[in-house]
Structures are given as C-alpha cells and as structure tokens.
Design goal:
This protein is about 60% helix and about 0% strand. It has four helices and no strands. It has helices spanning about 10-15, 20-35, 50-65, 70-75. It is globular, with a radius of gyration of 13 Å. The protein starts with 9 loop residues before the first helix and ends with a helix.
Length: about 80
Amino acid sequence: MRKSFAELNYYEMLDIRPGAAAFEIRQAYGAALQIYQPGSLVSHSFFTETERREILSLIEKAYQTLIQDQTRRRMTTN
C-alpha cells in the first residue's frame, strides 16, 4: 500500500537521500515546487487546490528543516 504524502518523511517528500548536500536539497525543493504549485499541469488532475496547498506546506517545512544543518541533525537524532 502506498503512503499518503503526509506520511512520508522529509527525505521522501523531497525525494533525496539522507546524506544529500545543500545544493541537492535546493534542487529537489525547486522541482517539488514546480510539480505542486497552483496551476501545475503535472498535478492538476491528481490533487484538489486544498490538497496541493497542504502538500506545499509540507514541502516548505521539509526544506526549512533539511537545509539547516542544526535542525537536520536534530531531526535525525530523535
């Protein structure tokens, strides 16, 4: 059974490995934004606007956590 987007961990949300470098995190973040942004043809027929906003919020939280070394380390030690 496939996980819902909210059930994914931050690495899965951005489709990166745990040891990803900062530039890889930024690239993955940019790619995710393009997929789920309002008006995106890629995800338009799969998600409602509400679902897309929730996904974008989760992507933003994942990015903000993973791009900062301190919060990233704290996440992996919990």
